[in-house]
Give the backbone structure.
Amino acid sequence: MTKFPAVFPMNCFLVEEEDGLTLVDSTMSSVAVEVAEQARMLGKELRRIALTHAHGDHAGGVAGTRQRFPNVEVSISERDAPILAGDHSLRAGEPQTPVKGYFIKVDWKPDRTFNPGDRIGSLQVVAAPGHTPGHVAFLDVRDRALLAGDAFQTRAGIAVSGVLRPLFPFPAMATWDRPTALRTAIALREPKPSLLAVGHGDALLEPDGAMSRAIEVASRRFVKAS
Ligand SMILES: [Zn+2]
């Protein structure tokens, strides 16, 4: 589902499970109406909301959506949970670059935090730091679809998080640490995803070639910049 597709596309995704639906990301404002319609069509209930990272254009829709579906379990990575709560301090061993991007004030707490390797239904949590310190991707173990959040963008051309696309520069401007984002992009090719679905822009089928090209561009740019 996409909010503001023409101007500032923000995607979120419904993943179907036997026991109901998982919403991955939530855009900037409530997606309760859209989710309710899909849930009715599929004959399933919304059970979970899982966030790829703490930015406001991914977490902002949680409050309104949860109002309509009060029993959903909301989760985010253990590392991005404090960032969501407003604590942007960095941990020992992390690049000491300030966390960037758009944040909202949240009056709710996640019900659960997860770490890479954990499972949320059929979704495997994959470490994908760089855009934020605790950014993750979700790999659907059934069909290898990769929900990669802002680790890549495809709006205005595929790019690794941190590579500025002048026609849609926002994800790059909001990226915390570019070398980390590049290592993540390389690692996300490993599971050979069948589909790459991102926060901003269209999903790509058989994305390996496109991901490789984006990685090559990022490697050249980030080396030049550092
Ligand atoms: Zn973001």
User: Anything to note?
Assistant: The mean pLDDT is 96. The pocket of zinc ion is lined by residues 53, 55, 58, 101, 131, 150, 171, 174 (CB under 6 Å). The two ends are 37 Å apart (CA to CA). The CA atoms of residues 22 and 48 lie 5 Å apart.
